[in-house]
Amino acid sequence: MTTHSIAATGPATETRTDADGSSAPPPSAQQASNAGAKRRRVQERDGLGALRTGVWVVLAFLVGLPLVALALQGIQPESRQVFGDRAVAEAALNSVASATGSALLATLAGAFLAVVLERSNIPGRGALRWLVLLPFLIPPFIGAMAWMALLGANGPVNKMLASLGVDAQLSIFGGWGVVFLLAVHSYPMAYLVIAAAMRRIPGNLEEAARISGAGTARVLGTVTLPLLGPGLLAAFVLTLVANLSDFGIPALIGLPERYTTLTTLVYRYLASSTTSNPLPAVSAIGLLLLVLAVLAVLAQRKLPSGSQLGSGGTGMKLELGAARIPVLVLLWLWVGIICLVPLLALASQALLPAPGVPLTLENLTMENIIRAATSPNAVSGMGNSLLLAGGAAVCCTVLGLGIALLLTRGKHRSNGALDVVATLPQALPGLVIAVGWLLIAPMLGIFNTSWVILGAYVMAFMALVVQSVRAPLASVSSTLEEAARTAGASPLRALLDVSARLAVPAALTGGVVVLLTAVRELTISILLVAPGTQTLGVSIFNLQQSGDYGGASALALLVALAGILGLSATAALANRRVDT
């Protein structure tokens, strides 16, 4: 039993009398404060812990479950038997060769563009930067269709050569065409990575070499390029992994000449009616690609980032001298031949009534575009793509925002693992993601439904939102969040009321990028497509395969223009927000 007594004289004090008659002083203000802080810490752990637990549960379902299922199926004896097939060995060799060769070409092209457009005195650099990135804004399989229209048997190039008396019959089909087009569609990524690394090179090192008497070529060879080593390696690894997973270019350009890669071989297994159960074989191939992708990611993470060099924002301008005009002409030829002419060829094929019809004003018609855009398959594909891409954009925005908040604002020992799990799917081939979801779809009861495609989309593209939010949020001071906590808000509420609200514009931008990327995706969709779930990319691919080149080109042209306009507008808005 506990009683309380108050002294009759002196300052009012409260004592506590226990059952044995002993008294104890009341808790001090410091003790009360510590107890309150302890209670708040428990509440804080509960709030942030619930958020972190929820994110981990979602990632375990979206990322862990498909990859574990793929690994377990891929190591089974019946799955490993596929590696004894000569066709698999040939496809693996072609995949590695085409991915490595195209990544090397893309890295060399990206390095050249980064040096010229970021450091030289070339005029019109702003317009050239945007134009050389056009292949990045066009889906690779649509780029392949554009080059097929350009270098087809009845294409404008062969017609022009024939008119000049040259019987060359140039063709884009075959292994070399696969390597070339993979390089064309991946060099913009290499350029962006190398340009970012170049901005971190301190200009004073180049200036010191120039003061010592070194010319432009020697400064590049002895200072700039050696310091760009990590950026060059990172660009090579990223493009290698991306090109290893591409399906559209090898399918459209390689298969007509029997040039098979692992992605097209898996598609052949899944589409074949002679194989009763293709999942063991495709799981083994998917596991092989998964191992290669993980090794590439680990290798990239081991590379020095070069961040210790500083910002390097005031790098030395390289004077090209007499080479300025030839380099400028080369850049505009690059833009014209690589970026614009194939699109014009695709447009001509879409606007002409049939292949081989002369390109004259009288022959131009909108019939292909109207017919393709209003056909039942196209309308269904557009509807499915918009629904799936929109759903993926919403899910990725919410999930990516939560992950980025935990990584940038929460200090926890699991942040390293969270970072790896959240960003790993971006480096995985689409084939790996699709096969993983093929394996778990039956046990989840979503096989042959749109849900399996949606889950694969969210897994594949959530890292885009994480990256969009993480960089701007990391540059924002935590002062406002600390002020909210001082005012009595729990860390979770301060995180949601302050940091989350500041990050919402960046998250929405990332969501728009997910929408524009998913709506024109092909590799995942074509491996997971089922009756009633056909997407826009699959519709275009099927039209091309069925010989309706005009309809396929018409839809492809619309998708390409929408992608260019949408991604360009998103990038412009993001840059404007950063500037303000």
TrEMBL record:
Keyword Electron transport (UniProt): no
Compartment(s) where it occurs, according to its Swiss-Prot or TrEMBL record: Cell inner membrane; Cell membrane
Coiled-coil residue windows: none
Gene3D superfamilies: MetI-like
Topological type in the membrane: Multi-pass membrane protein
Domain ABC transmembrane type-1: 92-300, 382-570
Parts of the chain that traverse the membrane: 49-72, 92-116, 128-150, 170-198, 219-242, 279-299, 327-352, 386-408, 420-440, 446-466, 502-529, 549-574
UniProt keyword terms in alphabetical order: Cell inner membrane, Cell membrane, Membrane, Transmembrane, Transmembrane helix, Transport
Region (Disordered): 1-40
Domain of life: Bacteria
Family membership noted in the UniProt record: Belongs to the binding-protein-dependent transport system permease family.
Protein name: ABC transporter permease
Organism whose genome encodes this protein: Glutamicibacter bergerei
